[in-house]
Amino acid sequence: DSEDNAQAFGFISQKYKPYPQLRMVGLMATETRFMIGAAFDACQVGEATLARRLLGDVPANSLTLFDRCYFSADLLIAWSKAASSCHWLTPVKRKLRYEVVEHFADNDMLISMPVSPQAQRSNPELPTHWQARL
């Protein structure tokens, strides 16, 4: 491989590898396994940053399954607004801070979560709280 690629993409670990590595995030239809969109960059760029690049590819009337590392108010609020009737589902950490807004049934409720000060600094348009179904 070339030194130019190594400089552009870098390496995930500090150990020398014979080839540079990159990080990629893909948006795939689960039924057909068709790739709807993909974004890649240097391995120093995080998954949530790459996922934001896929906002234009979000289909209407869809449910996106996210891994836990994508749990970000900034990303998930933007994702919900990316197309009509698009929703997301992700596992949450046990330490999730929330207040119940409305209780629908056992293990089914509308919750309100605070947006972190760090997220508000990086995106001043974010609200102080956001809601999701838990």
TrEMBL record:
Q: Which domain of life is it from?
A: Bacteria
Q: Which GO terms describe its molecular function?
A: DNA binding; transposase activity
Which InterPro entries does this one have? Transposase_11
Pfam families membership: DDE_Tnp_1 (PF01609)
Occurrences of domain Transposase IS4-like (ranges): 19-101
Q: What GO biological process term is on the record, naming one?
A: DNA transposition
The molecule here is called IS4 family transposase
What species was this sequence derived from? Vibrio ouci
